[in-house]
């Protein structure tokens, strides 16, 4: 029988009764031994489980101890919140900033960071929204929580409602978002900066002058209409001149993407310190030919203006007459972009305190430009501290 236990069985086996009894006895003994091993293994598994639990417990204790010893735990709250501000609040390109997702990520790190962030009003005093980067759901509760955390600080809004392909549903969502904010928090808005289709601005422009824009200091309206004509859209949307900004006692800085907006907006010119009209920017806005009288009307009332930037269109503008007389007694910085000598606003303004002059001229009548600058400086009697000239001639002229 021993041969059967040591080699492969290939033929029929014939066993004697005593051999059968022997094999049955061996099987019983081996099964008993296996049961003994399983019992010992169960004991060892229980020990391993207990040891694993102890190890995990100790690892948690170690993590807690390291958490206590972590240098960030000893950083004063003032320094921690300063780090939050430097890392989260955008410095450039605020219209396309990832501020909202960054803040939500920051407050999800741990309870201590969430508490520190929620008690730092500066982190919530700026709100940057881009329709193409951030999905705005039907509920705006998070917006209310965001603004409430800013406490008594004024609010700076940067809303990019520009979309590469016209989408009425997205535009409508942006309007609802803006309307929701202005309905409850218009009194907190210090800086209002919006890019988008003309209809995106309706929640602003349909406010009444008594809408309590008490904190508004700056507006920047960049209207862009890829599918249509800006002036036609404005006429359809704004049958009468908008007077909402006349109710903003602190408004001092105005930036407009198109000179034609001056014909639709009533601005508190007497209190403005900075005015930028049709400034060069990344978007290619449609050119609408403004009337020089529009410029003359508002500039003649800007007696506190310190900074002025005007980008004049290249086609169809009839230019400024030397008979126009505009006194800007406090103007210190002037930037003008024009395409012909008659477009040069230096022909009609007097600025006795002007220190910085930046002229961008694209034309061929350089003699007239030099003459206008000379006459302007003689008329204003001011020594310029900074003069920048960018002069280029268009091809074929």
UniProtKB/TrEMBL annotation:
Protein's recorded name: Uncharacterized protein
Q: Which residues lie in coiled coils? A: 27-54
Alphabetized, the UniProt keywords read: Coiled coil
Q: Which domain of life is it from?
A: Eukaryota
Keyword presence, Coiled coil? yes
Organism this protein belongs to = Gymnopus androsaceus JB14
